[in-house]
């Protein structure tokens, strides 16, 4: 890998593990580097929940959702010199950190490499805002448009860089977040840290959101999921996009809504997730079905009626998390889709205009990212964009 010639600190210029370890010693990271170099000799045990950093796609997208997540947005603090080279060096450093952490090793100069074990299905998934694609001079993701009911707060809006960290273990996750954040400090400022949790329902890709609803039922699966996320319209082969929205839920007012009102607003039953047009959870959402009074079983402004893709090209893959930051609780909505302009954005416009659930929702965060392709062994994130 050729290294850019910039005035960045040495740590940021080091791409390969060996070079990174040597560089750490040369620049006086001292004992921490030695410990992390020793830790690299440990072979990760796949039975302990290892997801590969290397592959066609980044992990943490179409693979099974882990129970804990932290989404962190950073803005760049450029130094003198080429922005493009600084970004390249940054992505090399993140790649090195991610490869180590996901295989259960500490990052370079890690003061607690023991906390990386076992990795507990840790994934780091990296995305860039349009502003960084412009720095590189390649790729288009665009920006998130304004939606009708937005009440956005500055700290949850678009950041330059995003990493989605996920793991089954919140302690491993915490360590990974801290290790990477320490390394990014010199070149970035943190815009947001959004922490989420979910618990998959037995034998399903669904979870209860904080309204109590079964969420994730009509997510695409298998090939349909891969097609929705990495298919036609993607901004780069094996890359995709992430729409990240933060919805606060007014749970005190939701408490006052009876079961019929709740089911009506969603179009599905809270009890078992079944659509009002059927009787079990996997029955189709049938918008033509009528009830005994001859009225539509699912109201036209029910969430699922408006969210249902009007054609295959609108399909998105939702991978959201519940949040409770002590002040507010809600849903960290995260969806992956090949082209947000033909899928996420029109669906979100429909929902923002008329969704019955809006009464209890306040969208306070909104951002859109270009998710980089997967990495070949020995390579680094975004390498295709720099050659
Ligand atoms: C806090 C906000 C939201 C909540 C609580 C929520 C909740 C739910 C629930 C419980 C379901 C039914 C089960 C399922 O199929 O997953 C559902 C379906 C769905 N939601 Fe949401 N959702 C929210 C926001 C959004 C947003 C912002 C979008 C996209 C812009 C979206 C898109 C969808 C889609 C595509 C479906 C499946 C519709 C179908 O084909 O049946 N949701 N949502």
TrEMBL record:
Molecular-function annotations in GO: heme binding; metal ion binding; peroxidase activity
Record keyword Signal present: yes
PROSITE patterns: DYP_PEROXIDASE, TAT
Residue ranges of domain Dyp-type peroxidase C-terminal in the record: 208-375
A Pfam family this chain is assigned to: Dyp_perox_N
Keyword terms: Heme, Iron, Metal-binding, Oxidoreductase, Peroxidase, Signal
Coiled-coil intervals: none
The keyword Kinase belongs to this UniProt entry's keyword annotation: no
Cofactor dependence: heme b
Domain Dyp-type peroxidase N-terminal, chain residue ranges per copy: 58-197
GO CC field: cytosol
Transmembrane domains' residue ranges: none
Family per similarity comment: Belongs to the DyP-type peroxidase family.
PANTHER family in the cross-refs: DEFERROCHELATASE, DEFERROCHELATASE/PEROXIDASE
UniProt protein name: Dyp-type peroxidase
Organism: Glutamicibacter ectropisis
């Amino acid at each position: 890998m050729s290294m850019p010639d910039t005035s960045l600190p040495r740590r940021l210029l080091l791409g390969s593990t060996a070079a990174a370890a040597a560089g750490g010693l040369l620049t006086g990271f001292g004992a921490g580097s030695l410990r992390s170099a020793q830790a690299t000799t440990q072979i990760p045990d796949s039975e302990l929940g290892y997801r590969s950093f290397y592959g066609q796609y980044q992990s943490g997208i179409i693979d099974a959702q882990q129970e804990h997540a932290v989404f962190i947005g950073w803005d760049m603090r450029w130094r003198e010199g080429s922005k493009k080279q600084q970004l390249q060096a940054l992505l090399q450093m993140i790649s090195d950190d991610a490869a180590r952490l996901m295989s259960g090793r500490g990052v370079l100069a890690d003061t607690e490499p023991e906390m990386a074990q076992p990795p507990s299905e840790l994934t780091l998934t990296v995305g860039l805002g349009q502003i960084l694609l412009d720095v590189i001079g390649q790729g288009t993701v665009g920006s998130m448009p304004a939606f009708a009911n937005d009440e956005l707060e500055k700290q949850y809006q678009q950041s330059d860089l995003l990493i989605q960290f996920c793991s089954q273990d919140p302690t491993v996750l915490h360590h990974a977040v801290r290790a990477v954040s320490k390394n990014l400090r010199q070149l970035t400022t943190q815009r947001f840290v959004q922490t989420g949790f979910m618990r998959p329902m037995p034998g399903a890709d669904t979870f209860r959101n904080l309204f109590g609803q079964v969420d994730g039922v009509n997510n695409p699966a298998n090939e349909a999921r891969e097609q929705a996320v990495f298919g036609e319209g993607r901004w780069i082969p094996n890359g995709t996009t992430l729409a990240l929205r933060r919805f606060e839920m007014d749970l005190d007012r939701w408490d006052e809504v009876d079961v019929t009102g709740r089911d009506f607003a969603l179009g599905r039953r809270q009890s078992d997730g079944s659509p009002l047009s059927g009787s079990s959870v996997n029955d189709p959402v049938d918008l033509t079905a009528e009830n005994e009074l001859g009225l539509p079983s699912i109201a036209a402004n029910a969430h699922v009626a408006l969210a249902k893709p009007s054609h295959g090209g609108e399909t998105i893959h939702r991978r959201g998390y519940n949040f409770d930051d002590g002040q507010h609780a809600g849903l960290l909505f995260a969806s992956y889709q090949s082209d947000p302009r033909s899928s996420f954005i029109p669906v979100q416009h429909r929902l923002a205009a008329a969704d019955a659930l809006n009464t209890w929702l306040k969208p306070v965060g909104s951002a859109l990212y270009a998710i980089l392709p997967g990495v070949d062994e020995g390579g680094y994130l975004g390498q295709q964009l720099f050659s």
